[in-house]
Amino acid sequence: MSQDTTPVVLITGGSRGLGRNAALHLARKGADIVLTYRNARDAAEAVRTDIEALGRKAEILPLDTGDTASFGAFVTRLKSVLDTRWQRRTFDGLVNNAGHGVYKPFTETGEAEFDSLMNVHVKGVYFLTQALLPVIADGGRILNVSTGLTRFAVPGFSAYAAMKGAIEVLTRYQAQELGGRGITVNTLAPGAIETDFGGGMVRDNADMNAGIAAATALGRVGQPDDIGGAVSSLLLGDFMWTTAQRIEVSGGQSL
Fold first, then answer.
1. For the chain: N or C, fewer Cβ within 10 A?
2. Quick one: fold of 8-249?
């Protein structure tokens, strides 16, 4: 049986929000998808159905990106899926997307909340990517999801933004150290997007939405499709000479 040469992209946290949207954009551009979920299996199954309706292959795997002890077993299962579904040993693109937010003033953010963010957004990304390196194809692409909040400050996001600042530094080091294998590593930094992130505050709070739109050069708040399109372009487009870059997709928010 011959090896399937279709691009395969792994997206963490792909059952909802920006991860789901990115998966669908990538599928429309010809990629097959492996997406992970933590608890929402039904939502992940729905995304798989949507991807297959586009004529692409999809697999869903459970993963808690804050539990580094589980990464070895996850990689073993991923290898089995790659062999069974695609007759190959590697995949082509990784989107480190999984995460959650804490919306509290600096003075009120607790240590447990801080540690939860650290485990998922920094430690998890660091060691999951490390564990996946033998399964990422030479010439592959890694995209670490950050936030516009590392460039502009919005009260209430100090801990979350600090984690993403660490990811932006990590991206540059990964790009330097993995460049010998032809692997590019970039950061995608979304601005404010209308999703359920943070309880849907940007989407559902009309005053906040209007204020952000007024402070954005393109005059509106971002939509999930704005981010999904950027992800698919960076992973499947002609960006092989672009690495170690922070690419903000915010419509010109807070310039």
1. N
2. Rossmann fold (3.40.50)
